[in-house]
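Most newcomers find our protein records easier to grasp once they have seen one. Read left to right, the backbone structure tokens trace the chain's path through space. Nothing more is needed to start thinking about how sequence determines fold. An example says more than a description, so a record of this kind follows:
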Amino acid sequence: MKGPTRREFLGVLGSAAVTLPSLGITESASESRKRPNVILILSDDQGYGDFGCYGNKQIHTPVLDRLYRESVRFSNFYVQPVCSPTRACLMTGRYYYRTGLIDTWVGVSLMRPDEVTVAQALSKDAGYRTGIFGKWHLGDHYPLRPMDRGFDEAIVCKGGGVGQIDDPIDNHYSNPIFYHNGKPEQYHGYCTDIFFDGAMQFIEVNRDHPFFIYIPTNVVHEPLEVPEQYAAPYRSMGLNENLSKLYGTVTNLDENVGKLLKKLQTLGLDENTVVIYLSDNGPGGTKRYNAGLRGVKGQVYEGGIKTPFFVRWPRKLQGGRDIDRIGAHIDVFPTIMDLCGVTQPAGLKVDGESLLPLMTGEAANWPDRTLFIQQSRPDPNGWNVPRPYTHCAARGQRYKIVMSAPGQETFSRSMGMGETELYDIEHDPGEEHDIAREHPDIVFEMRKRYEDWFWDVTKGLEPPVRNHLGTFHENPVQLGPQDMRGPHAHEAPWNWAQAHRMARTEPNGSGHYEVEVARSGRYEITFRFGPPGGQGLPAMKAGTAYLSLGDVTLEKQIEAGAASVTFSANLKAGRFRLDPLLTGQRTDHRAVSPFFVDVKCMGI
């Protein structure tokens, strides 16, 4: 199918094809001593094929295609197959299990507060000004928020994205409510425009200082919402509605990257600013071109875990080059430290390697290595333990093994426990030919490496990561399904669309929260069956509410029609499990948990 011409697109969008700065400007001695600025752009669910430069004849991405041409590109770069794990690896340079994080929700998408993020390392040791504009997805409450993790400025959405259950009810990509340094604010415009505008304002204010900016976009993650002028050209090509909207979000993202690069050029910052671009995993939801790769988001085949990785730094790096050595998200932290001339914090165990020697051509003998990828939903009996040999892969420079297990909640086909596939990625990038039977020695060796890795990175998963209650940094705290743990927590709705569907049947899902009470005192704890004010969902039926927290055990009758119930209790400081349960809400008499638990310290 023929795509629109440049003129046709410009007629709809305006000048989306931004002229990027040329390379090779001579630098002064004072400039050569200045640390570079770093901008890390992470798109969400953007597949390898969602770029014109990777062979997509339908999509319009002139700026990203130009960025590709002017960058050092890694042709074998890997991430985890889902959101939070990739983000934890990016921020710390460590495999995500080491950070206490396991998956994307149900209380195991929280990253330990003592982990050192790239923002903390740069701001503390090199005086960088730091900002995040987009989707954090590593914890919504103190001490896990980006503003607690080294970011001076933060404009972010809650949970796993706009419209999910921890987000304000019925939030949308246009005119959304975002959290500015922890406080909700109403914004006007489209989400990607808002994030990039925030980043550009941050650059304006901090242009006389080195800065690190992290832009983890909310697109192209569903729901597919985009201004009509971006979807219309694709619809006119005959593409279906979902694909038109999805490609429209990419074109809008492309346009915003162009505005950002133009801003750097206008301010004279482009030559000494490192721009890094990648996606957090493969394409999710809408079926589309994926550059011949097998698999999608949630899978450990190449299509779910391979991402473009562009690094553009005109002052130091010669662009237009491909590097075939394997790299991964864990390499981003040490690479940025190296780019900025900052020593990694003493005693910090980083799993990644700086890729700068490869980018500068100074790596004469780059050693072979093995990268590990896993997307194991936690054990259904406890929901806090990842399972070995489950939906995982080990990737060497040439060979890759893939393993899965029955019952794994992913898009992948199920295989027997421990069954292993082997692919020669160098000669079979589409993973069409399983050669495990022909090379049992390679399978054995790579499985052994995986086993050693798994038991090493998972040995520190306990104690669980906790949200803090009663601090001066955040009070009250609203706990929701994103923070809830337990074998039935996944049955609670993860977005508001599911919540509204559930309202037509019966409430579902139950679990507990791992918390740390920061100070002893009097607390009010409110169970809410629905969103603030009870909008959009039915009020509670008559029943009983039960609260257990430490040595406090309380119950209270729920009147029919009530939207909430509130307990008052004296709590001791310490680490506890908070169990909120409601009875009388289901015809099968099964207990459920409220949608939200609001905890407010009233004083000592």
Notes: Residues 524 and 568 are 5 Å apart (CA to CA).
